[in-house]
Write a structure and sequence with these properties.
With about 120 residues, this protein is mainly beta. About 0% of the residues lie in helices and about 50% in strands.
Amino acid sequence: VQLQASGGGLVQAGGSLRLSCAASGLTFSSYKMDWFRQTPGKAREFVARISWSGGLTQYADSVKGRFTISRDNAKNTVYLQMDRLKTEDTGVYYCAADQEGDYTYEYWGQGTQVTVSS
């Protein structure tokens, strides 16, 4: 099983990035998918969640209204569209797969760096 996160980079505050997480080796539609982020010295922070079919989403208050999570089960990929980025959005972003929907994660991606400059 592999979760391959990509799409990170350097962007100015106010800009946008779209992260992707491509899954292989698992039945993708059987997993809720989450995005987390982490900055040095801080605990990993929940960012967004999407249900198995994509019909339900959940966001951290800090990103609500700016980030959008989506998924394409035909492509085994989950996305995170990040708009109106702030410097505090800087961090390594990870995708994670949760089969039971109980916030325990069977698989994690390797992370992609997002840096927002002022």
